[in-house]
Amino acid sequence: MLESKLCQSVATAVNTLYGLQLSSKDISLQKTRKEFEGEFTIAVFPFVRASKKSPEATATEIGQYVKDNLTEVEDFNVIKGFLNFQIAKAYWLTFLNSHQNETDFGFVKAAESEVIMIEYSSPNTNKPLHLGHIRNNLLGWSVTQILKANGKNVVKVNLVNDRGIHICKSMLAWQKWGNGETPLTSGLKGDHLAGKYYVLFNKYYQAEIAELTAKGIEKEIAEKESSLMLAAQEMLRKWEAKDETIILLWETMNAWVYEGFEQTYRRMGIDFDKTYYESSTYLSGKSIVEKGVAEGKLIRKPDQSVWADLTSEGLDEKLLLRSDGTSVYMTQDLGTAFLRHEEYQAQQMIYVVGNEQNYHFDVLKLVLQKLGYNWADTIQHLSYGMVELPAGKMKSREGTVVDADDLMDEMEKTAYDKALELGKIDDFESEEARQLYAVIAMGALKYFILKVDPQKNMLFNPTESIDFNGHTGPFIQYTHARIKSLIKKASADISPISENIEIQSKEIDIIRLLHEYPSVIKIAGENRSPALIANFAFELAKEYNGFYQEITILKEENEVLRNFRLVLSVFTANILKSAMGLLGIDVPERM
Are residues 384 and 494 both part of a single domain? Predict the structure, then answer.
């Protein structure tokens, strides 16, 4: 690529002019700021000690050397110690001709390589997927696609939290107050039905706490002595003891939930290569912990609970097995990590989990290291910020969570209302119109979530996300559809472009962006950030719309220029489709 040639040429210039041995990797190339002329910029300050000249003089000498020796560079300019290169128009035209029809432009060919495993979703079977899960799923799936575009061998996995005290709370509530209700008799999706009883448990539990505290019992003691909590804990012990009645109830309710999850995943366009279940991995975790006790690496206390002492690492003691022998989340994660390493020998195991679990993953790695597993460093936590709505934070046990299904329903209704208001479905048949606003709705949701840097908290506003003229998915979708309509109207074969034409600055601006796409994919992969792809797609769509408004395309009388602008339009549509595809967003052919 051009960037590599530029870096090599600058390194050669510095060596030839000043005797400073550098490689292309030592040269930091940046995109030129919009207020200056040029495409690529380097800061020459690191070279002035060798040149023994001012930054301006050093930049001028290097710039002249590169211009004289690299045909792609047409000119250069110097702003203080910054050297800006201007690339020849002939290069941009050659680039356009060479790549205009590549549907996988910017992608690295997949090679046989070590596995990168990415875990995302990780739902609990006591409630439906909610808005937080939407960010998790979209982020995990998109990062997977971006890494694949970088030629990586990626395995997508899910870990279903299908056991534990929270699951028993839903089961106990259904057992007490369900009256045999099922998804079929209630008309509710299975995950929504389980969530209903999780909320119901908490309602009665809080009432019982209030009753006990009214009798003068301290709240902390009341929480432990609650008959409901004691019953849920007893149910968990029976589950681990394989009590047939409890296991049957557990299997029945989980089956309802799995079917509900699958419906939601299909609607989101999310899938997995393998699903793990905590009910299968926790025993491995218990074995690992017991082995650690036998080897003197973990501590068993007088009450028979097992702990990892991490005080020498600057943390505290971490519980791994309760006194009654039941496991905790950390135990299960130890077992899951061990099983995955055994299966994949992964180069990296990336966990897509919210930033409230930062401490948990620090501990997971430290415990594995303490137990002697040298692969612990392959674990990486892709930490992301929380999603909030204008109404504030969400709490599952209080029933204030926004269910993923409900949100997607609302998005589709909003998309329909907007499309109807703007006349975008006037000439569509009813089924085609329904498919269109479903695509617009999911595009709006996914784009609004993914355009934000993963590490940042975000406020999701459903109405703002569906705006055909803003920094939104529908704006980019509409740009793609506009280009497709333009190509259809052209009704002529598009041929390779002539490289002896005069092109305008707005056209060059688009070509520059297209040229950037491989670098954007590479950096997005390195940073695990779909936001870089999302914002690139918006910049490209915005740049194209400016070009479309100001420059004649179909009515251009000069056939060579008309053909060039059509080629530019086709390439732009291809890249918009490719970039949005990495985000899991479909782009319609017409809107």
Answer: no
